[in-house]
Design a protein that fits this description.
Layout: E1 5-10, H1 14-21, E2 30-36, H2 40-49, E3 55-57, H3 60-67, E4 71-74, H4 83-90, E5 95-97, H5 105-117, E6 122-124, H6 132-141, E7 146-154, H7 164-168, H8 171-174, H9 177-180, H10 183-193, E8 196-204, E9 219-226, E10 231-237, E11 245-252, E12 255-260, E13 265-269, E14 275-278, H11 284-298, H12 308-327, E15 331-332
The protein binds nicotinamide-adenine-dinucleotide.
């Protein structure tokens, strides 16, 4: 590999802008080689962000064959996953994919198989794993028995339907709020308590007048039973603009941890009134990007905390919840 790690991007929307702004654009060991988006203007906007470096494409196959990158960022909306990953896997390239890794389990399983077969380095955008607060709670849980947790994403939802909000409110494009957004909390729940065995979900609909194309649920409550016997209740709402936010409250046999807000600041309660507070750090995307770039250079995992396998498991939980919302029945997980 040359001195710099040569990166190419498939999908150049808002999340790529954030990765670049939070640190990636200043990595001096990275060559920004190419930008691919169906909307050429979005690819051009990302190129501008890094001072005009890299070529622009609207066809991922052409880009990969011409540029021959060392690693690929796949930053697509849920409904668009599958074809890009297959092109990248055929070329045996390491890739970073934003969450959620797919809108359906079939696609995620196929990609996971390709990743395993080719032993590819992968990263998934579950940046919360890289936070000090999360690492500390995980460490404390090692000597505890997990019991219950509850948390989720509560908000008012979009007030207009432009940009990402156009696809976000369509169930067949985003997969719904639980799959698309609360996926961060699904992943965190797994990271702290382990694999999930059973999912039961209730959907809340019809709370507000909506345009015809608005097909996601207004809210949902999802119950998880972990393989070790612990349980979680994860909630999502995009119809309650007052008193919401992001949180996760976790209880084990000898501790409680309260994660609050997007930065997952935590207050940990221990026996005898002892408390530990850890603030969330800014620019968290830079941490996962550093781990990915280091891993591409090394040809093996150098600090990536969420791999495609984790993306597959979070998707399996979300798809089970979607199925349960439809049938009213609990779903056993086979992944
Ligand atoms: N980790 C996080 O906290 C976080 C935050 C925001 C978004 N995301 C995730 O990132 C993903 C992308 O979100 P976004 O906010 O960038 O959306 P976006 O709509 O701003 O950008 C998506 C881009 O992909 C392009 N695109 C769609 N299909 C394509 C294809 N087949 N080939 C090439 N380009 C294609 C679109 O033209 C658009 O420019 C979503 O899955 C979202 O959940 C993650």
């Amino acid at each position: 590999m040359a001195e710099k790690v040569k990166l190419a991007f498939i999908g150049c929307g808002g999340i790529v802008r954030q990765h670049l702004d939070q640190g990636l654009k200043s990595f001096d060991d990275v060559e920004f080689a190419a930008w691919c988006d169906l909307k050429e203007e979005n690819a051009a906007a990302r190129r501008e962000q890094v001072g005009g470096r890299g070529d622009i494409f609207t066809d991922a196959r052409r880009m990969l064959d011409k540029i021959r990158p060392d690693g690929v960022y796949i930053m697509l909306p849920p409904f668009a996953h599958g074809p890009a990953e297959k092109l990248v896997i055929q070329r045996r390239l390491p890739f970073f994919v934003e969450k959620p890794v797919a809108i359906d389990l079939r696609t995620a399983k196929q990609i996971a198989q390709g990743v395993r077969k080719n032993r590819l380095v992968t990263a998934v955008g579950y940046m919360t794993r890289y936070r000090k607060s999360v690492q500390r709670v995980r460490e404390l849980l090692r000597s505890q028995t997990p019991v219950i947790m509850h948390g989720g994403w509560i908000g008012g939802g979009p007030s207009s339907y432009v940009g990402i909000w156009e696809w976000w409110v369509q169930k067949d494009k985003s997969g719904g709020q639980f799959l698309e957004q609360t996926t961060h909390t699904i992943d965190l729940a797994r990271y702290l308590f382990g694999d999930v065995a059973r999912v039961y979900a209730a959907a809340v609909r019809g709370r507000k007048p909506r345009p015809k194309f608005y097909t996601i649920e207004d809210a949902s409550m999802v119950q998880l039973q972990f393989a070790n016997g612990a349980a979680a209740n994860l909630y999502s709402s995009c119809s309650t603009p007052v008193g919401g936010g992001i949180c996760l409250h976790v209880w084990a046999t000898g501790m409680k941890a309260e994660f609050a807000s997007w930065d997952h600041s935590v207050r940990i309660h221990l026996p005898d009134g002892e408390e530990i507070a850890i603030a969330g750090e800014p620019n968290i995307f830079a941490r996962e990007d550093r781990a990915f770039v280091d891993s591409v250079r090394a040809g093996k995992n150098q600090g990536i905390l969420a791999t495609y396998e984790d993306g597959l498991k979070a998707t399996a939980i979300a798809c089970a919840a979607n199925e349960s919302m439809k049938t009213g029945q609990p779903v056993k997980l086979a992944v």
